[in-house]
Design brief:
Largest sheet: 3 strands, antiparallel
Strand content: 5-15%
Number of helices: 6
CATH class of one domain: Alpha Beta
Radius of gyration: 56 Å
CATH topology of one domain: BirA Bifunctional Protein, domain 2
CATH architecture of one domain: 2-Layer Sandwich
Number of strands: 5
Helix content: 55-70%
Length: 304
């Protein structure tokens, strides 16, 4: 037979939740699956294996592939299998567990959170946030987003299943186990590379800051020297300026006195020339009366 009679959901439960909250979270999620898809759900909560990761709390949910109601099983739930609806519904299921798990983590006062997005999706969003922050001049936000994107530069491992896990615990390599070891080694190498990039960036930033501080200190010292030199020169400059002003005032006074003397001399000369001109005019008139004009005839114009 080739029929699918059940679907299995393997749910990772946060290790930060205490046992009772783990149970409550899985039960709430199972009830949501029943109401959303009208299916029967069987729950099995597993503790971490003694030889494995002690944080590996998880649950296996086995659901029917047919709707169940008061009269028993009904129609097939084919929407989860169809190519046009299946991926969207699986995304919805993952996001619902994220919402329920994070709510219970908050109840447990834990800062840890579930994120249903892939590493690639989260890294791309962080890189986009960094670009926007740089455009807006928010350098601290940009640097934090870049660091987040670097931390998310991780290739996810593959699920190896219980059989391969048993073999790996017995030190028997498996194909998927070897693949995961290779992925983990590459992830570690990539993260070490990003760590080295951050170290070099910090060293360069510190060096530039030191050089900038030295330039600022040199400029401030130069300004102080110029201020001191100016302070020393000011008294001498003030005295020199006062002397030049005093000499200029004396010279101006001397020039004004000379101009006054020249004007007085000019006025006297003008007055003397006027008096002499007046006397000369009177003498000329007397001569004209004593001597005849060329137009007068002989025997005329004489006085005794």
């Amino acid at each position: 037979m080739n029929a699918t009679t059940a679907r299995e959901y393997e749910i990772g439960i946060p290790a930060e939740l205490p046992p009772e909250l783990r149970k409550q979270a899985i039960r709430e999620f199972s009830h949501w699956l029943t109401e959303r898809h009208k299916v029967a759900v069987d729950i099995a909560i597993h503790l971490p294996g003694k030889d494995g990761d002690l944080r590996n709390h998880h649950a296996h949910l086995l659901t029917s592939t047919r709707e169940i109601g008061p009269e028993g099983f009904g129609a097939k739930t084919r929407a989860l299998d169809a190519k046009d609806t299946g991926p969207t519904l699986v995304k919805e299921i993952r996001e619902k567990w994220e919402e329920i798990g994070n709510r219970f983590l908050e109840v447990a006062n834990s800062n840890e959170r579930i994120d249903s997005r892939s590493y690639k999706k989260r890294r791309e969003e962080a890189e986009g946030l960094a670009r926007v922050a740089e455009t807006e001049g928010k350098q601290e936000v940009a640097e934090a987003a870049k660091r987040q994107a670097q931390d998310l530069d991780i290739q996810p491992t593959v699920h190896i299943g219980p059989d391969a896990t048993k073999l790996e615990r017995r030190n028997i390599p498996t194909q998927r186990g070897s693949l995961n070891r290779k992925i983990k080694a590459e992830n570690a190498e990539r993260q070490n590379g990003w760590a080295r990039v951050r170290e070099l960036s910090a060293e360069i930033a510190a060096m530039l800051a030191h050089e900038a501080q030295q330039i600022r200190d040199g400029m401030l010292a130069g300004i102080d020297r110029l201020r001191d030199a100016a302070a020393k020169l000011m008294p001498a400059q003030k005295a020199s300026l006062a002397e030049r002003l005093k000499a200029a005032s004396a010279k101006l006074a001397e020039e004004n006195a000379m101009k006054s003397s020249l004007k007085a001399a000019s006025d006297r000369l003008s007055a003397e020339a006027t008096v002499k001109g007046s006397k000369r005019g009177k003498a000329d008139n007397s001569i004209e009366r004593e001597f005849p004009s060329p137009k007068q005839g002989p025997g005329r114009g004489f006085t005794r």
